[in-house]
## 1
Amino acid sequence: MAQNTFYLFARREWQLLFRNTSALVQPLCFFIIIALMFPLSLPAENELLTRIGGGVIWVSAVLATLLGLESMFRSDYHDGALEQWLISPRSLPLAMLGKVFAHWSCTGLLLALFAPLLCMTFRIPPDQIWVLFLGLMLGTPSLSLIGAIGAALTVTLHRGGVLLAIIILPLFIPILIFGAGMVTQQAIGGSTASQLYALAAILVLALTLSPFAIAAALRTTIN
Amino acid sequence: MAQNTFYLFARREWQLLFRNTSALVQPLCFFIIIALMFPLSLPAENELLTRIGGGVIWVSAVLATLLGLESMFRSDYHDGALEQWLISPRSLPLAMLGKVFAHWSCTGLLLALFAPLLCMTFRIPPDQIWVLFLGLMLGTPSLSLIGAIGAALTVTLHRGGVLLAIIILPLFIPILIFGAGMVTQQAIGGSTASQLYALAAILVLALTLSPFAIAAALRTTIN
Amino acid sequence: MSQTNDTPAMLAINNLECSRGDRTLFRQLSYSINAGQCLHIVGANGSGKTTLLRSVAGLVYSPKGKIQWQGENIQSNPSYQSTMIYLGHSEGLKNELTSVENLEFYSCLDGHSDQSHVDGDLAQMGILECADLTANKLSFGQRRRLAFARLLHSKAKLWILDEPFTGIDDAGRALIETICVEHLDAQGMILLTNHRTLSQSRLAPSLAVLDLMDFQSSLDHS
Amino acid sequence: MSQTNDTPAMLAINNLECSRGDRTLFRQLSYSINAGQCLHIVGANGSGKTTLLRSVAGLVYSPKGKIQWQGENIQSNPSYQSTMIYLGHSEGLKNELTSVENLEFYSCLDGHSDQSHVDGDLAQMGILECADLTANKLSFGQRRRLAFARLLHSKAKLWILDEPFTGIDDAGRALIETICVEHLDAQGMILLTNHRTLSQSRLAPSLAVLDLMDFQSSLDHS
Amino acid sequence: MNLINAFFSSIWGFLNRSFHRLGSPREFFKISNYATPIFGLLFTVLTGYGAYLGLFVAPADYQQGDSYRIIFVHVPSAWLSLFIYMVMATASAIGLIWRMKMAFVVAICSAPIGAAFTFLALVTGSLWGAPIWGTWWEWDARLTSELILLFVYWGIMAVYYAFDERQTAERAMALLAIVGVVIVPIIHYSVEWWSSLHQGATVFRDGGPAMPASMLTPLLLMALGFTFFYGYVLFLRARNMVLDQERKSRWVRELVKSSRATGEAQ
Ligand code: HEM
Ligand SMILES: Nc1ncnc2c1ncn2[C@@H]1O[C@H](COP(=O)(O)OP(=O)(O)OP(=O)(O)O)[C@@H](O)[C@H]1O
Ligand SMILES: Nc1ncnc2c1ncn2[C@@H]1O[C@H](COP(=O)(O)OP(=O)(O)OP(=O)(O)O)[C@@H](O)[C@H]1O
Ligand SMILES: [Mg+2]
Ligand SMILES: [Mg+2]
């Protein structure tokens, strides 16, 4: 039954996400549009874009994740589904892990897969692209997991979206620093190992702890 | 009665916004956090930040506005308040203008007032700060007005937030280009008049047309 | 349907047809309501009662058929909108505002320039103790009562009430019936749905019943 | 309150006190329910019925008093949770999923490995025609019926139903009463609220009534 | 005077009538029976001849050699991406104002075609840019605004498919299409308003086209051909949509019956 819970919730989330196919590509489009805003708002110089490209893509990924998080539990709260999960005998942390996994697979994973193409338009050299990709693959699951805690904490609040951003963005910043730092290091020919390990460590921590934190947050806020 | 409608809706929005004071400063915090993410994710060079600072602040302002837009009509839709406005004899465009005005006064206006401080931390020269401030004061009302059309169109949709971003960001981009372009022009000593006029023209257009578009969008999506 | 054709009806529904998706809910529905009448719409779950009420309120537009108020179409007709109130399942209350603030807003919206009656209205609906509670703290029945408080001082002639008695206790039901009777006595009109018969209630004397079933059977013939 | 003390009650509420904000809703509420019993909780709007039901469901925690299931506290007690179903005003249906998908999810959640009964359940609740409509298109009553379809094949012993008959037509009410009676006959337990008396209904034989008024009067004494 | 009056009123009457005929799905379907093959034919002839002239007859450019010949695809598709948007916005406005079903059909069927032409303009432009500018992508005003146009098209389609009630979807899409129309002048004038890599107006400019006739003729032929292609695909898509929307109406059922009958007869 335990494995089932994970699958049950992941499948439900996928069902909801695939219901309108446009919802599926939306985080991706959003990511691209944000990343596009920069070249438009900066002085037109090629070399500038190449230098800041990695950072811009990381910031876009963080913001795209953030925008998707807002709606993660909101409708479940309003239609009473959340209550039902809380009083069900299923393991809530496992259920939430399933939900977050499905959510990530349609946001973070997609972003990471698409980022290399975006990098090319910024004329980022291939070795840096590779590092960026690796960083996103390791970093975005942590973003989703940590972000879900914030989403759970703010679900009952009116205008929770903005509060969510404020409590979650500071937590995202270490991931952002390591991820973007990797690209910068690679650009100056330094070693990226330490940042890589840090990202991996954060991921392991997030994977083991945040499901419980999400469940606890939901239990606290719903009553 | 006409003037009243504007005031009635603006006051209601302010009541809601001031209800929890933390909601009030949230767009501002969000704006600051986004703007600060960049220095963290870029190679550490002072001169780089000064050059891209204006663009970064504009992008942050656009994103902060966007995040606030999502919740603009959502709760009114869910609790049935929107229906009541639609069938009331009051002029819906005027009511919506009031609502957007109150909304802007707590997001765009605040951002514009605060932006100069942020600029100083990026070491942007005072003449550019002045231009940036002017641009934001002219540009953010248009952002709120145009964004509200998108918010009205997507209010009934699940995961509307991301769709909202996709349909609205392309429309924001001209404003972004003009606003950020002003700062770049000022930096290279060019004339900023044409961008200024463009922003003013967009604002006049948005002020006159978008209330009707918002009302039409609401009438379309609610049934 | 007994209609006297010499006095023009206040609200006239003419050959109305409503469809949702592929399904036609009812067809060729004609009815008119005159001052002082209360029309009770009955029908099974999903038969289209709410859709009918929303059409009359102008929230749902159906290209087939006409709904007229004093001879004019109701679509974007401000003189109709200012004399009509619709209360459905969602009450239109803001969770973050208190009961008083919520009621004051609607009182303004309905065109009252003076809001001093609000406290009295809350007292009359038996929720004065909740006056300063934000609406999300109210119980289900208290929310409904708050929504109905709007009727107490309304100048509207036509009330459209979707299942007004849901979630309301016996005392509240008697109260609402009284309010409705007073409204009817003042030549008001009421359009309502309710799953229980109202023939035992105080509304009975001015009650007319419209069964949506009658307009569905015609669907099979075509 | 007549209680036989020799058989241990299935569900025992002991000296429960619930407050919301500054207000104490009820105090020193003790009651126990045995297999085959249906407890009807009555009280005016805002008296605390919903709060009591949510406490028993484990959604509201009150530090004063105890709620026990077969002698164990109900808080985070999986064996209790797997034998209890709570249906409140919000049905927990996802607007974007169809009726079938919604029901299948709950059937999985309740531990059924096989979902073939879902269509039959919908038919029994009279909403088979809406099987492939997404839930946001259902009428108010159809939503309620869909929520109740979950009870048909549930293995839960204790049903907690908050105003189960709201928005449901006469046929549906008879249906739900029948389902409840069958559940009680199979030694199930029901805790429900309803604003109308149930003494005329088919539930009457196994009905007990708990008036929250009785536990509010004690508030004045203290 | 009277004559002129009569002349104009008869023209007005004709326009009015054809407007209303086109407005009825059934009439549209009848007209499209004839129009579709004609558009298809015109498209093949014009594009074929234009391509022949462009690829084999027109002289090679003295600077760019043969690589410039991509102009015969790039410019028409870029023009069409804007033209189709204008058609879509106009149709949307007509639909919203006169509640005309067919206008919405035209608008929503145009969106993917317009998006396709925008995409084609982007691809051919960057293919062309690679040898000319030494880069296949540049964040410059014309290029970026064209990219934004692609997103606007996508947004419009996303909005249409996000609603499941058709009436709502149509009207929401139409509103967005009208609001988005600001992007068209921005794209068109971008080369003048911002200093841009992209070259300025070459064909439609004051003082006539800055292009030899041997290049201009195939270019215009191709553009006309592409326009007929748009009309052709639009008719095909619109026919399908009309049949789907009106599947319950009597004339569609009769149509199906009769086509079955002829199918069986054969
Ligand atoms: C990805 C890159 C490109 C994009 C997105 C693009 C986009 C466009 C657009 C939108 C137009 C129509 C403008 C209007 O009608 O107002 C246009 C026209 C044109 N483009 Fe490009 N273009 C690209 C690259 C190029 C290149 C590399 C060349 C050759 C040097 C070129 C040559 C032309 C010419 C000659 C016209 C016709 C100008 C006129 O008379 O209006 N384009 N392009
Ligand atoms: N897209 C659709 N396709 C088919 N049927 C639909 C669609 N949308 C709504 N419906 C049906 O339309 C009807 C709407 O009914 P409405 O809400 O008016 O019912 P009602 O009489 O108020 O019912 P209740 O007593 O439950 O409140 C429902 O039967 C619903 O299933
Ligand atoms: N923060 C608070 N301060 C004071 N009173 C509160 C607060 N929150 C809730 N209440 C009160 O608690 C009660 C909650 O009642 P509950 O929802 O349990 O009532 P109920 O008996 O189910 O009523 P109904 O018949 O209307 O459904 C309400 O009277 C409400 O006004
Ligand atoms: Mg209904
Ligand atoms: Mg209750």
## 2
Amino acid sequence: MIELENVAYSYGGGELLSDISVKLAPGSFHFLTGPSGAGKTTLLKLCYGALLPTAGHVRLFDRDVRSLQRDDIAKVRRRVGVVHQDVQFLDHLPVSDNVALPLTVSGRQAETANGDLTELLAWVGLTNRSDAMPPELSGGERQRAALARAVIMSPDVVLADEPTGNVDWDMSQRLLTLLVELNKMGKTVLIATHDLSLIRAAKAQVQARVLRISNRRVQLAGADL
Amino acid sequence: MIELENVAYSYGGGELLSDISVKLAPGSFHFLTGPSGAGKTTLLKLCYGALLPTAGHVRLFDRDVRSLQRDDIAKVRRRVGVVHQDVQFLDHLPVSDNVALPLTVSGRQAETANGDLTELLAWVGLTNRSDAMPPELSGGERQRAALARAVIMSPDVVLADEPTGNVDWDMSQRLLTLLVELNKMGKTVLIATHDLSLIRAAKAQVQARVLRISNRRVQLAGADL
Amino acid sequence: MKFDLKTLRALVAGDRYADRVVPPTGFTAQLTLFVSGAMAFLAVFALALSLASGRLADRWGDELARTATIRIVAPEDQRAIQTNAALQVLSTTPGIADARALTDEEQQALLAPWFGQDLPLDTLPVPRLIEIEATDQGFDVTGLRLRLAAEVPGAVLDDHGRWRAPLVSAAQRLRLLGWTVALLIVGAVAAMVTLAANAALAANAQVIAVLRLVGATDSYIANAFVRRFTLRALVGSAVGVVVGVLAVWLMPSGGDTPGFLTGLGFQGVGWLVPLLLPPVCGGVALFATAYAASRALRTLT
Amino acid sequence: MKFDLKTLRALVAGDRYADRVVPPTGFTAQLTLFVSGAMAFLAVFALALSLASGRLADRWGDELARTATIRIVAPEDQRAIQTNAALQVLSTTPGIADARALTDEEQQALLAPWFGQDLPLDTLPVPRLIEIEATDQGFDVTGLRLRLAAEVPGAVLDDHGRWRAPLVSAAQRLRLLGWTVALLIVGAVAAMVTLAANAALAANAQVIAVLRLVGATDSYIANAFVRRFTLRALVGSAVGVVVGVLAVWLMPSGGDTPGFLTGLGFQGVGWLVPLLLPPVCGGVALFATAYAASRALRTLT
Ligand SMILES: Nc1ncnc2c1ncn2[C@@H]1O[C@H](COP(=O)(O)OP(=O)(O)OP(=O)(O)O)[C@@H](O)[C@H]1O
Ligand SMILES: Nc1ncnc2c1ncn2[C@@H]1O[C@H](COP(=O)(O)OP(=O)(O)OP(=O)(O)O)[C@@H](O)[C@H]1O
Ligand SMILES: [Mg+2]
Ligand SMILES: [Mg+2]
């Protein structure tokens, strides 16, 4: 699915990430953790082609990102559901349209997925907010809507950056369950989070590997969690 | 300082908050908690005049918000430091200028507070990011910068909405310590959060009251935390 | 936004902090500059057209004041007598300011295009011409014609006003058109600057929200925008005027040939009229932006 | 952005989903509409000016083709003979296309302003006029004058071209000026639409980021903007043209008086020329926005 091989990245100054090799096998479940500013978001962006590595190779669906045309990247993104840390919506469209947006831009009619949409909104607890405009959502509601948008195309890979940063414990368990279910359907899942209790809770439900960024490298965290 | 008396609020639909009476005495330390979408952010906005109550009275520094002119509200805001949940900066100014912005708009020269600024940035761990532009910050760095901006004028009241949603445990303890210190200097502090472990950690350091929103009302949470 | 002296002083003096606080608005800025410049450039031409046709209308209007001529067609020996008789009649006709017979030289000049310079006036039975200058009230053409018929048999009254008046009014209409276009342009600049300012304000909703949050007053925010757009309209229109005036000045004047076309330029103090455009555009931009800002700031919380 | 047939078809057909996905751009939209409208309005006047002065230049040019006249000043009995002799000379002069003597009626008409309608031509020693039409190469004025002096003693050659040519070139310059201004206006529309599109793209950076994130292709995003701005430029300029043409049409024509000023309108197919403006503006907007969008999308990741 997604493969990083000796990847390094720098925003211009010193290297932020060095010599990173990670392979997200189909159907795997990963957590990515590390202190604030370690590079979790950066690594995620490398994983869906928003950034190009300064060294090494990133392969998305067996193709090197450097060889991808702009339209190819757009097509890759339809197979990868992303939850951004700073969640963004089209503020002029209601929540339901925003959640269905990946269907719209890929030319599929939102109508065909109408059942899915309703079900999904119910799952993230936004049924009665589906006609609201994004600026009218609370912080937690935004995050849930973003997760719903990321999974509506039932993409092969879900990359989520702090998807539970603004929701309470009950809701975060619910969102985690959604991601675990997707994983059980064979999807690849990667969650970047600083919330260790979320990781602990997940470990009870699914066989998850935990990657930790420290000192510009990625290490596999052991049983210490 | 800030007083809500039988306040109700609705965004147009049903009432979100009803009959709420809260008094933030000078020097007090409060937490505000409740499930996602309960109205924590809304209540905070009522506390600094960003929203006007649909019923009841909100008194800021002993003046009813309804009697305040637009310029008066601007002046009130200089005495209240606010950390928004969806942190916003001026993206064309570096972090240090953004943090010093409250000084700038109130006509005080940023230079006079230069020492404070450096110290503050060090405290929130942004010393080496002070020349970065806001879009270049990581999620946690943004939250820390926002907190720094909220306290730079050493305001009478600090209102923080999920100030630790995106930072790891160590950093959240650090930010909490900053707020506790301000409180010890006599400032009034109100923190909205869904992170119960943060509340527990705070209770060890300061005498904090916990308000919980449930069923449109605010209750004082007991020892169950 | 109140518009008191303090605000105005702050506006003129500027505030380098306030200026930095609003982001450089990039394309909106260039758009405002360009629009003001292009419109000022066109306004210069409209003004040139207007002033030129104004001059034309004035000149023709002056000629119109000498509305009529009388032709004395009479045998050589009668001509001088009848001319004097006609002048006598005219001097007692109400509404006539002045009347005089053309000299031989003047008649020769008038006829030269047809008969050449060397016309032997005295050998030809060329009629003597009397030029009549009417007062503002004008005179009674029919009455005068009857009196002349009775007293000066060889006199024929020719009322040039008949066919010149429409030309003068056409020139006046052209002048009006020029001023209208110039005014329309200033109005268009006002509308465009308002729209551009509104677009900038809408695009900077987040900036305004941040400034509000940290305690900036409305006038602080508004001034930052107003100052910018005023400056841009001022600079843009100044450049447009300079280029426009240069273009008018460089326009080949067509030598010494008289006539309308060659007059499409500025003359004398006319050159100063386009200089009014930048302050007018700047002022218009000032009020347009102040209006837009105060409205936008009232709707945003 | 590639510009193949498919893109173009999608552009014309529109896509109601794609259209909704880009937010209504409010003030930028109004600005674009207004700018296109105002500029088209002004362009109509520039075109009217241009076509009118073009007609004038043509008419004067035609008259210029009859560059010269010959005046036969001779005693009554000699006049016809000398006229024929002059025509004879002219028919053998190279560079002269046509030459003919004016009839009595024509001479009378020419002289009427000076002597009245009732001029007894036969009793007056009025010179006979011969009109000469030169070929494009023209003729040798001095040579002809010498030959005439030798063969027709009473003939005087008057070279009208001398003083008319500058007028014609002035009219041509005015036509050029009109077209230049019209072209400048179209260029200004292009620049303004590009800037407005850029401003809209910059203001919608977040929208573009979101669309990118969920897998929208560049052309999908670009088309949504291009379609909008093209439509606005089209509609705006169409309204401007209609209003402009109405204004020109309503402009009082000053009755039947001849002359330049009254001709400032369109004639015949001239009325169709302004109709070219909306498609031109629309096309210009299409390419300007496509260019702006492809550039903006390339810089944003
Ligand atoms: N566009 C950029 N230009 C320059 N530096 C950047 C840019 N984006 C991020 N950085 C820096 O790179 C570092 C890593 O950022 P990143 O967002 O990957 O961290 P993170 O691990 O996601 O942190 P957090 O948990 O706070 O979200 C940070 O110090 C950040 O300031
Ligand atoms: N401008 C608005 N218009 C309409 N409804 C709104 C608006 N802002 C918030 N709401 C709704 O009011 C409710 C409370 O919102 P609020 O932001 O106060 O919740 P919260 O307690 O802060 O939640 P969270 O923990 O998720 O941030 C939510 O359901 C939200 O959708
Ligand atoms: Mg991050
Ligand atoms: Mg909230």
